[in-house]
Write a structure and sequence with these properties.
The longest helix is centred in the first third of the chain and has 17 residues. The chain has three helices and five strands, in the order H-E-H-E-H-E-E-E. It has one domain: ABC-type transport auxiliary lipoprotein component (Rossmann fold). The chain has a five-stranded mixed beta sheet with strand order 2-1-3-4-5. By secondary structure, it is an alpha/beta fold.
Length: about 160
């Protein structure tokens, strides 16, 4: 009996060494939110981008997603105010985030249209797959008070 169990263990080790991806370990996708550029440039509208980034960060910290904070990745970047945010994250930042095991980054832009009390925020949200070096999807949506709808990325974006 003991010899049979030892034989099964040896076969398992040999298979694991010879075919390391035969039974790949399924890790939950990791994501970080870099921020959103205020394309209006009006600094008075910056809090909307900061609030959306913070809200999205807290919503992503759920199973089966692993949310990675910038602090957990040794602070590779400090997000500037939304009115000074670049349109896209710099390539070296994407490389550093990937080195810390983060698979996806979320960033984008927003514009505020209309007058107070009847404003619409137009979001252009991008998800970038840093492992593959390609877009993981884009979501463009408008929110107007008091209605709101959920943002959804294409299902194929997360693989």
């Amino acid at each position: 009996m003991a010899l049979g169990l030892a034989g099964v263990a040896v076969i398992g080790i040999v298979l694991g060494v010879a075919f390391p991806n035969l039974f790949p370990w399924r890790r939950s996708p990791s994501v970080t939110v870099l921020g959103f550029k205020n394309i209006n440039g009006d600094k008075n509208l910056d809090p909307w981008g900061d609030q959306f980034r913070n809200t999205l960060q807290s919503r992503l910290d759920i199973e089966p997603v692993t949310y990675k904070t910038l602090a957990s990745m040794a602070n590779p970047w400090t997000p500037p105010p939304p009115s000074q945010m670049p349109d896209e994250p710099p390539p070296d930042l994407l490389n550093r985030v990937h080195q810390f095991g983060c698979r996806y980054v979320i960033y984008g832009t927003y514009a505020v249209e209309g007058n107070p009390g009847a404003r619409t925020i137009v979001w252009d949200i991008h998800m970038f797959d840093v492992e593959k070096g390609q877009s993981g999807g884009v979501c463009t949506s408008a929110f107007s008070s008091p209605t709101a709808k959920r943002l959804r990325f294409p299902r194929a974006a997360i693989s």
